[in-house]
Amino acid sequence: MDVSSKYFSLLKRPSLHWPKYVWYFLIDIYRVGKLRELCSFALWEINHKLRVYQFAKQYISFTDNNYLSLTSEDGMGSWHRNEADTPSFLCDQGFHFQPVVVDWKYCVQTRDSLLWGCRFSSLTVLCCSHDQSQSAIRVYTFDHPITSLFLSSQDTLFVCANGVIYKSEDRGASFRLVLQLSTRISYFLFNNGMTELPDQRLMIGEYGSIWHGQTWENLAFLYYSSDGGNTWTTADFLKQQGVNKHIHLVKYCARLNAVLLTDGDNKKQVWINSALTHFDKQAGRRKDGWQLITKHHHQTGGYTSMAETAENTLLGSDYLGGTNFIVSTADGKQFRKLVLPDPYRRSPVMNMVIRQSSSGEEVWASSYSCLSNKAKSLLMCTTDSGNSWARIIEFDGTKHEVRIASSSPVSSNVLYISITEFGEHPDQHRHKVYKLERHSVS
Fold first, then answer.
1. Which is deepest, 42, 271, 277, 312, by most CB within 10 Å?
2. What is the pTM of this model?
3. Where would I find the beta strands (DSSP E) of 390-442?
4. How far apart are CA 348 and CA 323, in angstroms?
5. How far apart are CA 314 and CA 381, in angstroms?
6. What are the tens digits of pLDDT across the range 36-83?
7. Burial of residue 116, with CB atoms counted within 10 A of its CB: 0-12 exposed, 13-18 middle, 19 or more buried
8. How far is CA 20 from CA 3, 34, 88, in A?
């Protein structure tokens, strides 16, 4: 049950019986544990309407560049209707996107530049590309669709399918089951929900949404392994702490030498483990374990994405239908919160990746909302650690989705994005994948 989706479209219906609507809305908010989030939504909305963020210069700054729009009638969406002649496109920031043959949904790059992943056209098949995505060979076929994958620093592959984590140490020739998540629909969020520590310990945050009529099923389990992913220990400290849904992000931060963890849905908190020990409990006086960073909901939390630059760590918020932020911190103690301005404000920042280019370090971020055609979504990029952002592709989330499709455990210049044009039914969706070929600075 998504309260934002359920009620967002009703706000403009003049014939709506408002007292009854408000009453049922508040009941639903209380039932799913979002009362504190509603109060934060209201506070942020008031600050926006009163221009508090504007006076305090707390809006994200966009560069004055031309960008592609899928919202116009002659936008790139029309290009998808002719698969045989899909052109590349060039932004005036020098970003050149070239279409590729392999329709990656997820892909990861090894240290020797191989690409491993699954395709929209064959979600049960693990593929490998040796020629920069101009072709791909089938390596292994699972019984169920691949829902996420992870590549360790040792090029060990982990694949999630049907709520099961599989491990391969022979480049996909064979897989063995190493972890059963709590439900068959569970997985970890690609690029954000699984991480590796410097000593090669591994961690997974379980994600999934199951509504039981009155409450969510609690899937907020953290798993960690000290033997390369062969065996796993389960931690339920988030469940004991009152988190009612799942884990969004678990990621090691080299700058802080700590693991950051964010939960959802009722509390949306941010946790840090600086001792890199006692992953099964909340920190006590000795500060061994997980320390809570955000004690109050309006401080923002529940981030779904993270990227680490030479200057700071960036986090993207998850407030569908509310106000969304990109937050930066250099020390894990002080946080700078910048608001996505309208028309992107209601779109959560779903993913971030780092790309190393010839001109320096880039952070790519994707936001997405499917609630309304007026809540625009965005693929954007920053070359100055989040001080300013360039809009690359603007789109209507009710008609399109633009996703970051690639990840890498090592520094990489590879970036793939997928563009989906929605049909009336899922089997009628059309997908095209582009690779960022080069960055030429004018």
1. 271
2. 0.90
3. 390-395, 400-404, 406-407, 416-421, 430-439
4. 8
5. 12
6. 888 899 999 999 999 999 999 999 999 998 889 887 554 444 444 344
7. buried
8. 16, 19, 51
